[in-house]
Specification:
Helices cover 73% and strands 0% of the residues. With 348 residues, it is an all-alpha fold.
Length: 348
């Protein structure tokens, strides 16, 4: 499901607009609300909003720059995008010091050390939780019974994103049991798994070589993700890693073939194994079963692919996957190798 900042921005203002109309004539209110979508798209500032609403909108603008434009920007464009994104986030915090998404996003790029970023989030987790819980109660009371659930959900989401970021950083830092604990905490708060915690959890079980934990997670997929079976890139790559760790190479090859079947044409990505920056707001939105989704899954699976030393310097599993993917599509593999060489020579 993942988090969509633009959708949240729309929902926040729609709730506030509906609340403003509640005290008036129902017929007039219905006609007024019919114009909400147009006003949101064309004249957002004309809608009633609080400083927290304005701050979240700035976060939405910054997310578009940092998570969706920066990865494709030239070197000349990148500096200005980073500067503008930071300005928007700083303005958001100035408007609303409790804009936890902005606080988290501002800290992440300023601290290169993953462990420092994790410790910062852990240090402030309690206050963020208390703040979001208080805001959820207040928002639900203000929204009224019909809209209380949505209001509380939106108020809680910054805390979900805070915990999701902690879990992802804990995984990178090798705090695998802590990753499991944080993911389970997320799933307890949000059984529908809006944060896609199951992806991070699958990788953590593979790191721990915990086949039983992984199998139990797969059995929970119908509840966590009713619309999608456990055939996403994260689940499959974790399953492949577990088979490889058991030295069951026939099973690993079978899973690799399944990955290529589910994600047609992904051999190039499997050979290149690009490592992307994590989304600042949350895991970036990608189309299910698309090449982009596979690229993101491979990037986050670097913690598995780069384990151990090998002659190619890619990690034992990473080198094995690259060799096997090359056999499946030699032309795609050759293209990936050329691009990797060009990237090294170009310094990017």
């Amino acid at each position: 499901m993942a988090f969509d900042p633009k959708r949240e921005d729309y929902q926040r203002l729609a709730l506030r607009f509906a609340h403003e109309l509640d005290a008036g004539d129902p017929m007039i209110a219905a006609r007024s609300f019919a114009s909400f979508g147009r006003r949101f798209a064309q004249d957002r500032d004309s809608l009633p909003q609080s400083d927290s609403d304005r701050a979240f909108h700035l976060v939405t603008l910054a997310t578009d720059l940092i998570d969706y434009q920066l990865p494709f920007a030239s070197d000349e464009q990148a500096a200005s995008i980073v500067t503008r994104g930071r300005e928007l986030l700083e303005e958001a915090v100035a408007l609303d010091p409790d804009c936890h998404d902005a606080v988290r996003m501002l800290f992440s790029p300023s601290e290169a050390a993953f462990d420092s970023r994790y410790l910062f989030l852990r240090e402030h987790e309690g206050e963020v939780q208390a703040s979001c819980e208080a805001e959820a109660k207040s928002a639900a009371d203000e929204a009224g019974s019909e809209r209380a659930e949505l209001a509380a959900t939106l108020a809680t989401r910054p805390y979900l994103r805070w915990i999701a970021s902690m879990a992802e950083l804990a995984l990178i830092c090798g705090r695998n049991l802590e990753t499991v604990r944080l993911c389970e905490k997320l799933l307890a708060i949000d059984p529908h798994d809006t944060a896609d915690a199951r992806y991070t959890l699958a990788l953590a079980y593979a790191k721990l070589e915990d086949d039983q934990g992984y199998d139990a997670l797969m059995a929970r997929y119908p509840q966590l993700s009713p619309s999608r079976p456990p055939d996403d890139g994260w689940a499959l790559l974790a399953r492949l890693a577990l088979a490889h760790k058991r030295n069951d190479l026939d099973e690993a090859r079978r899973i690799l073939a399944l990955i290529v079947k589910i994600y047609p044409g992904c051999e190039y990505a499997l050979v290149r194994q690009s490592e992307l920056p994590d989304g600042a707001f949350a895991r970036i939105l990608v189309t299910p079963y698309s090449e982009d989704e596979m690229i993101v899954a491979i990037s986050e699976s670097t913690v598995l692919l780069q384990e151990g030393n090998d002659f190619e310097g890619r990690g034992v599993l990473g080198s094995w996957v690259s060799r096997e993917a090359t056999k499946l599509d030699p032309e795609a593999a050759e293209e990936a190798v050329r691009d990797m060489k060009a990237a090294r020579e170009g310094g990017y």
